[in-house]
Each structure stands twice: as structure tokens, then as C-alpha cells.
Amino acid sequence: xxxxxxxAALSLVQILAQENDALRSFDxxxxxxxxxxxxxxxxxxxxxxxxxxxxxxxxxAQREAVIEMAARLRDxxxxxxxxxxxxxxxxxxxxxxxxxxxxxxxxxxxSRYSPDGSLAATRRMPAVALSARA
Length: 134
Hints:
The protein is an all-alpha fold. Helices cover 71% and strands 0% of the residues.
């Protein structure tokens, strides 16, 4: 295995581990900040893998190291996917709660009382827009 591929794999392992740690603790802002670095690490890994000279035979120790690194990457990628899916699900539930609460809050804010103290007809509720960013 060439040094470029080893460096690229180690960089990818490191950034996936950082992102997984952030996702585990629901630090979505930090996880999102790793997106560009993760994309660069993936590109570097793919590029180094494409340049790998497969005609060279590796010794048993090197083959074992490659197998271990591939297993580590596979585990990190699987965990990353699971954690991303969980974070997306949580975000969708939070957005749903806010979306359901907003009309009620706005209607209460726009309520008026008539001179006799009863609740008068409410004004039309204004349009509501929600924006979600990680």
C-alpha cells in the first residue's frame, strides 16, 4: 500500500470519528462544519485508491494492516450512516413540533377581547415560514 493511500485512509478515519463523536452528542453544528473536510478526505482517499499499484505484492504484515484499516473504515461509515439518520429523524421531529406550535402561538398573539370581556373574532393568522439548518 502506498503512503498516499495510507495518509488518505488515516485522514478519512479521523474525520469520520470526529463527525461520529459530534453526532453521538447531537452537536449538529460541529458535525455540519466537518462536511467540507469530510468531502476532501473522501476525494483524497478515492484518488489515492485509484493510483494504488495493484501489481505490487504486499507482505503479510502490510496485508493485515490493510485489512484492519478497511474494517475500521467500514465500521466508521456504518456508524456514521446510522448516526446521520438518527440526527435527521430528531431534526424532523423538532421541526414538526415547532410547525404545529407556531399557528397556536400566533393565533393567541393575535387574539382580541371585545368590550364585554369575551374573546372577539380573531384576525386572520399571518403566513408562517420555517427554515431549518444544521
